[in-house]
Amino acid sequence: MSSSSVVRVERDGELALVIVHNPPVNTITAEVRTGLKGALQQIQAGKDLRGVLLLCEGSTFFSGADIGEFSGPPKEEEYRHLFNGYEALSIPVVAAMHGTVMGGGLEIALACHYRVAASGTRFGMPEVTLGIIPGAGGTQRMPRLIGAEQALELIVTARPVDAAKGRELGFIDAIIDGDLRSGAINYLRSLVAAGKGPRRTGEMTVPAASATTEVFERARAQARKLYPNRNAARVAVDVVQAATQMPFQHGLEYETKRVNECKDSVESKGAVHVFFAERETRRIPGLADNVKARPIKSAGVIGAGTMGGGIAICFANAGIPVVLLDANEQGLTKGLATVDKTYQSMVDRGRLSADDKAKRMALIGTSLSYDALKDADVIIEAVFESMQLKRAIFTELDRVAKPGAVLATNTSTLDIEQIAAVTKRPQDVIGMHFFSPANVMPLLEVVRTTQTSDETIRTAMDLAKPLRKTPVLAKVCYGFIGNRMMEGYAREAERMVLEGATPRQVDAALEEWGMAMGILAVFDMAGIDVGVNVHKANASQFPPDPAYYQADFALHDAGRLGQKNGKGYYRYEPGNRSRIDDPEAIKIIAERARELKVPQRQHTKDEIVERCLYPLLNEGLRILGEGVALRASDIDVVWAAGYGFPRYRGGPMFHAETLGLDVLLAGMRKYQDIFGPMHWQPAPLLVELVERGLTIAQWEAQQRGAAR
Fold this sequence. Notes:
- There is one protein chain.
- The protein is α/β, with parallel strands linked by helices.
- The protein contains 29 helices and 19 strands.
- The protein is globular and about 85 Å long.
- The two termini are 50 Å apart.
């Protein structure tokens, strides 16, 4: 039988095999849909066919719909007609699945009459995390197969399940061990031999016991709890409920209507924006295509503390041998014990086998001598923030490292130009700023100096992939992108507690707005001493404000270091990270405010959010205008991937436009009138954009045009 470039139909006796090959992950693109439609027409016209098998070649069955189509005209109707066409066939249709079957990939399988899967296949409906709902029949077919309650659990939590769980729930009919294609053909032949015809999901009814009023009320409560400020999960509950109340085709049409409403929301546009922004970060304008990364087969990490150990874990997880170096045996022993504990917790939670743990631990060597790093392809320094210490380390690295080795510093604030200056190879020096805990947080700020070579940049950016990091390229300045923007955000949070707000009041307002964690709680987690040391070391970088970050200083002076000693902005019980309001902390901060004569004021939630966010957004525009970041979307990725900024708000620059650049400028000027110009100077780019009536995207397009 004939084929398209991505979909072909083969005959195997009385069976038709519809085989899809659209690498890398068999996304359901327009070309795939056209191919599937052509295949359907061939099957409808075929003679002597007794069964159809749908399968994909490559690493996975359909991974999902093409997210790139979200911003274009709606495609749901096309999906509906196509999937309904396969469901309407008069001979049994079997979907044979492997890999990671998500969203639209699972929805097409639900439209087939039977479903089999290779052992270990994973399934999920992640749509609500992108601000939408399953829009190709998932909300109508899944409840008919497994009941409304279980369907809601899959759709609302967006948590994937494996094949064994799918079989238990009832949307998988059989698990195939061995070769999937031959096993699925045998399964389909056995159906035909037994005289089993189509078993159409759309003709089933939702089991009444799974669809009580209590079930839907519970799902709505779960949606509100899991997704504050968001609507998609609640819409999903409405649409699943419609499956129990409407005829199947009406339910599908209602699903289409509601998914297209969701796509128009800021929530969906913001989440999709971040999704694509994360893929864009690796594209570096001005870096020629023929610049190749150096191969990285071995690594060294200097400093066996929390950060160094976490970075070593990243390399071991990537299968790259790494030597962890520290100044003394005690530091190494402690560091390696922490690494072991991290891996053991993964084993205990079933996320890693004991055998895999042993293999990864074996990739981490230790040494007290720099000579152990002489063969490393990349060496990352991860000691505490001291310019003197880092320059001493790089002097030593310049002596021992082989020619062409990438010499990276994990500094979060220091001038990398000064660090590179002590070497005879500044072209090989670059910043690789990991975020704590390094083995968990996805962000990697890659910081180039004026002398870093293109090859070194490409190597660091490409290395992010095996390390499972999202890299963002920045230029050298105090704090780079993320910490520089955090400076004003955190400054106002600290200023407000000096003005009489409680830590809980400030953090709760920020968390309610959508930040993963209030900034004062973040300081407690990171260690108040860390922030104090950074501000002491970089005093020359800050404005002459006697109250600057003084809440931190006051707590530090009183011996309060945060979670590490059980008291910071909050109090903590041993072994418990729950925040307990502490009158003593409030008293210490109030005393410092009196000494500094900080005027007291009442704070509404709106003021707390505005005073923290406006400086953050403003500084992002300053960074963009200065060219420290390549593009606005990179700034969004830094904050969404590294600082707990809500993805559904699209990152700080996306949010600035959602808010309105004119509103942001008016807000900066409002607080400038109240508090004076020192901290509230609007970024030149913000003023320019508002005066010229330009969006950020229009300004960026003009900059690209001017650069050509």
